[in-house]
Design brief:
The structure is a single chain. The protein is built from 45 helices and 16 strands. The protein is an alpha/beta fold. Strands 8-9-10-7-11 form a 5-stranded parallel sheet, sandwiched between helices. Strands 1-2-3 form a 3-stranded antiparallel sheet, with no helix packed on it. Strand 15 (588-591) and strand 16 form a beta hairpin. Helix 24 packs across helix 25 and helix 29 (675-685) packs parallel to helix 32.
Length: 985
């Protein structure tokens, strides 16, 4: 036996193949359903009988076996009668023919596929094992997670009897093995940081299971936590010695030694990719391949496989591969390289033609066919005049031959079709700036720019290793300025190679100026601008206008709705224009409904806008429409998240409308998907007369500053906003920008900087008579005072915030200040008043409707209840807060709440849960930066110490101590005291 539980028979031979309506569950309580409606399965003993039959794999169980399964060695005197009664009752509620009597016993038969959760789990586990053996770890993990999700609590929960107990142990062991397998694959896929939290909880629940300890050590090591990994080994060795009197198994001992040696093989090596082999054969119409061809290994392999299959003995049809991409991306270079490598597969020849598709006069198909026919040995006198006759003769001449045709720089599918061979054994490679979707059966490849590594390798091969080695960072700057576009890299490298007095840094400095970059990227007859000009010159007027105006926006990409705002067109017309630009490879489709420019194409588009856009004011008008779109939509998202908050009533007016959303999730999806582009638009507004709207956009999107994912970019834009407002002497905008910056510093735990920004914001808001930043400055200064231990100051600021919010009829602001005041009173030892104020804040939020800030109120109440030693009530509030933060994608608040839940579990002496939530807080991050991280580490150490993992607890406290000391926290003394007895020991 392989130790994997086997499921019952799914059907009798000859039974119906239609799935039965009945479903059963044993991986949890023993239950049954019919069409998703629960079926009563009776008393515990009756459920024990059903479980025994379900787990018999469709075999008959005798009455004696069932009695033994239910009662063991001491059955009641009426045991047989009881078994018959239970069976009779089950037969009445189950479908006819499911529970059958046979040979004095009973069996469950005729179940449909997937009718038993255990059988489904077995199938999924087998599928996962197969996927893992073939190297598809992503699918294996996903399938194994589905298998594990079928467990619903304890297996056979509440079912009595020795048989059920034995099966419980067996199936729980299997579940743990599946879990270990999935965790092992998590680590193979690089998810070590995420695995630490789960493994911490599992090792607490199963302290003697060495495989879990081994996985935890590896996860900690790969997360950069070597000391904790070694501490886990020390705790394990001590526990095994104390409990069992044995040493850790050899595998665990070996892992400890490898961690001590910092064995590099603990990280998964990547398998090398074999290079395709070329072979020389005639004839030779192919251009010479470049000697410094670099990268593109996956595309070379993919195209080579297609060509090899076409020329092989089993080739059934002529193969066509069409490469599309922006000018200069290396389509021709790749196609020529692959064609040379495949020459041995096409011994009857290789044909080549430049179809001039990007120019104003592309090659005529009949002219090309005449040239091809002559190259294939056809006499001029035998070549007919018409296109159709030449194409037919061309296909006839190629019949029975193995010929490769390279059609370079094609205009469209109509130009290509007559030039394609018609028989198996031949193949065609097509390159074009247009995707050849009109070529039936073609293998389409969209060629993107190089990876940074490939780009640097190409630059180095042209310039020389000795010049690049000492200036690697500058070389990376050069290839980044080239947008990783092969043509641009080749031009830049060639210029440097021809100028021995230049350094790489000199070239990088020249390319750093965006306005001069395209002019710098030309060498001899090669020029990036000229390549783009060919494509731009073929655009229709509406396409050219869209190309110019869309290039003005700074974001990494742009949505269809935002592009419609820029162009001032309906969404349908906008989509048609954008898709036509994608077809020309001047624009890329980043995702459904999203578009982006290559960096150099964007610069070219802007140059075209400055040169061609009439009137010139249209450029400013287009950017103003985009800003209005983002501001109006972000204000709508803010209003949905925070009903009753007066901030949206104090924002600058907009002329162009935004999007409207039906629910919070839809609104949040928009905000976070547009984060980068939205912040880029705000930054572009600074230094123009759009400054106030740009600052307000930053303000309306303040959730991005607390999300974790976008916090750094938000911070950069907030600094830029403050400096821009200060430079033009606009106190209204400066006050609002400083308020946004205050929040940035608060999230990062920089309280001194936050207090200075809030103080300045308060002064500016008073001067500008702007109530909203006045409220937020007072509220934030209260939070700052709380975190700095200045409780009297904090109380005064928050009372002022409450006063200002009431004057502005800002109920949401009042609730926020009340909850913060609750935390101040809690810090001052007024626990009852803290609970009352938090409940008052929750009441205000409740009157306004569900809002993200209700989570902050419940968070505040949870803290107060924890301090009041009411952990059950505290966990209720904190868990609700956690769900709300998670729903609203407030990642850092989610991590902070995990920390507070860990503290509540400590109070309730649930140490495994405390450790698990503290680990999750470390993985996610928290509001307050290193100050709060120190608290999390301290809490984790306490939980681990209570679990007997003293070595690992010490590692946590040693990491927390300098963070507490750096922050000037009184917790530093507490941690020293925690370390002191351990240090003596």
């Amino acid at each position: 036996m392989d130790g994997v539980p086997r499921g019952p028979e799914q059907r009798r031979p000859g039974s119906s193949t239609e799935p039965a309506a009945l479903r059963f569950g044993v991986l949890g309580p023993v239950r049954a359903w019919r069409d998703d409606e629960p079926v009563a399965t009776g008393s515990p003993q009756q459920r024990a009988l059903l479980a025994a039959l379900l787990l018999r794999e469709g075999r008959t169980a005798t009455a004696a076996e069932l009695i033994d399964a239910l009662w063991g060695e001491e059955p009641p005197s009426q045991a047989l009668a009881a078994v018959r009664t239970y069976a009779s009752r089950l037969r009445k509620v189950l479908d006819p023919g499911v529970l059958v009597s046979e040979s004095g016993g009973y069996a469950v038969r005729g179940l449909g596929e997937g009718a038993l959760d255990l059988a489904a789990a077995q199938e999924l586990a087998a599928e996962a094992e197969k996927a893992r053996n073939t190297g598809d770890l992503c699918h294996a993990r996903e399938v194994l997670n589905r298998a594990l999700s079928l467990w619903d609590g304890e297996t056979l929960a509440g079912v009595p009897g020795p048989y059920a107990e034995a099966q419980r142990v067996r199936l729980e062991e299997w579940r743990l093995r599946l879990l270990e397998s999935r965790l092992d694959m998590d680590l193979e896929q690089g998810c070590h940081a995420e695995a630490v939290s789960e493994l911490t909880a599992l090792t607490a629940a199963h302290p003697l299971r060495e495989r879990l300890r081994e996985l935890l050590m590896l996860a900690l090591y790969r997360s950069g936590r070597q000391a904790e990994a070694l501490a886990v080994y020390a705790d394990t060795r001590r526990l095994l010695a104390d409990e069992l009197g044995v040493d850790p198994r050899p595998g665990l001992q070996e892992l400890q030694q490898r961690i001590l040696r910092a064995d590099p093989n603990l990280a998964e090596p990547s398998a090398p990719v074999a290079e395709p082999v070329a072979g020389p054969v005639r004839p030779a119409q192919l251009p010479a391949t470049v000697p410094d061809f670099t990268g593109r290994a996956s595309f070379v392999r993919e195209l080579s496989e297609v060509l090899a299959a076409a020329s092989g003995d089993e080739g059934r049809v002529m193969a066509v591969s069409a490469l599309a991409g922006i000018g200069g991306v290396g389509k021709t270079t790749l196609a020529v390289h692959v064609a040379h490598a495949a020459r041995s597969s096409f011994p009857d020849g290789q044909l080549y033609v430049d179809l001039q598709g990007a120019g104003s006069r592309s090659a005529e198909p009949e002219t090309v066919l005449g040239s091809f026919l002559r190259a294939l040995g056809t006499a001029d006198s035998a070549i007919p005049d018409s296109l159709e006759e030449r194409a037919a003769l061309y296909r006839s001449v190629l019949d029975g031959r193995k010929v490769l045709v390279l059609l370079d720089n094609a205009r469209d599918a109509a130009q290509v079709r007559p030039l394609l061979p018609g028989t198996a054994g031949c193949a065609a490679l097509v390159t074009s700036r247009v995707r050849m979707v009109g070529l039936a059966g073609a293998h389409l490849i969209d060629l993107d720019v190089m990876s940074p590594e490939e780009a640097l390798a190409l630059f180095t091969r042209i310039v020389g290793e000795e010049r690049v080695a000492s200036e690697r960072d500058a070389a990376l700057d050069v290839v980044a300025a080239c947008g990783f576009l092969p043509l641009a890299i080749r031009i830049a490298a060639s210029r440097l190679a021809a100028r021995r007095t230049w350094t790489v840094s000199v070239l990088a400095a020249k390319l750093a100026d965006e306005r001069r970059r395209l002019d710098e990227l030309q060498a001899g007859d090669l020029a990036v601008k000229a390549t783009f000009e060919l494509g731009y010159g073929q655009l229709e007027p509406a396409q050219a206008r869209a190309f110019r105006l869309l290039g003005l926006a700074d974001g990494p990409d742009i949505s269809l709705a935002a592009a419609a705002a820029v162009l001032d067109l309906p969404a349908e017309d906008t989509e048609d224009l954008l898709e036509s630009l994608v077809d020309t490879s001047l624009l890329e489709s980043a995702a459904p409904g999203r578009y982006r420019f290559h960096d150099l194409v964007r610069l070219y588009a802007r140059a075209c806008a400055e040169r061609d856009e009439q009137p010139p004011s249209e450029r400013e008008t287009a950017m103003s429409r985009l800003l209005d779109f983002y501001l109006a939509t972000a204000a709508g998202v803010y209003a949905i998240e925070r009903p009753g908050d007066r901030l949206v009533h104090h924002l600058e007016a907009t002329r162009y409308p935004g999007l409207h959303f039906n629910d919070r999730q839809e609104a949040l999806d928009w905000l976070y998907s547009e984060a980068n582009s939205l912040l880029a638009c705000a930054r572009q507004a600074f230094g123009t007369d759009r400054l106030r709207r740009g600052v307000d956009l930053l303000w309306a999107a303040k959730d991005l500053g607390e999300s974790g994912a976008n916090s750094k970019q938000y911070e950069t834009v907030a600094f830029t906003a403050r400096d821009a407002a200060q430079s033009v002497g606009d106190p209204h905008s400066e006050g609002r920008a400083r308020t946004a910056l205050t929040n940035v510093h608060l999230v990062a735990g920089r309280y001194e900087e936050a207090d200075e920004e809030a103080r300045q914001a308060e002064l500016l808001a008073r001067a500008a008579e702007d109530p909203t930043p006045l409220f937020w400055a007072s509220n934030d200064r209260g939070i700052i005072g709380l975190n700095q231990g200045r409780y009297q100051d904090a109380e005064q600021h928050l009372l002022r915030a409450i006063e200002v919010s009431r004057e502005d009829e800002n109920l949401a602001g009042e609730a926020s200040a009340l909850c913060n005041l609750s935390r101040v009173h809690l810090a001052m030892g007024r626990t009852s008043l803290a609970i009352t104020l938090a409940q008052e804040g929750i009441g205000v939020y409740g009157r306004l409707g569900t809002t993200v800030r209700l989570a902050n109120a419940k968070y505040a109440l949870g803290l107060a209840l924890t301090e009041a030693e009411r952990p059950r009530d505290a966990l209720h509030e904190l868990t609700e807060a956690l769900d709300m933060f998670r729903t609203n994608r407030q990642r850092l608040w989610e991590g902070t709440t995990h920390f507070r839940i860990a503290q509540a579990h400590l109070v309730g002496q649930n140490y495994p849960q405390a450790a698990q939530h503290a680990e999750q807080a470390l993985t996610i991050g928290s509001i307050g930066g290193d100050r709060v991280r120190a608290g999390v580490l301290t809490t984790l150490g306490r939980a681990l110490h209570a679990l007997g993992q003293t070595d690992r607890a010490r590692v946590c406290w040693l990491e927390a101590l300098p963070l507490h000391e750096q922050a000037g926290s009184p917790e530093a003394g507490t941690v020293r005291a925690l370390l002191s007895p351990l240090a003596v020991a």
